Predict the 3D structure of the following.
Amino acid sequence: MTHTLKHISIIMLTMALSTACTPRKNKMEPSRSGPFSYCVSEASSLVKINRAKYEKDYTNLVAMIKITKDYSGAIHHIRNDSQSIITPLYQYKINNICNEISQKLLAEMKDKALEIQSR
């Protein structure tokens, strides 16, 4: 049963990342479609709000998507017991970055609403 669950999580991670990055002009950029599109969109919104403050968040997201995609391409060369440790780590890292981006965007939107309200 756990062996099957490991394979399912690996397959899900691989599918999720198969469209996560697309090559554009000699660099990898996150795709605007696929399972992480909401995260990429939110990170882009943060950069539009304040490039200096949020550019690093966007860069970290792009890097993590690329690293995770690289891992999913090499996963078949890694022992099953190692996969059961590493795969959840990559899932956690991507989800954690996306959650942080979502929280920052919500905070910015709240600040903007309060700013309008106080006028």
Observations:
- DSSP finds four helices and two strands in the chain.
- The first helix runs from residue 2 to 17.
- Helices lie at 2-17, 37-49, 51-74, 80-117.
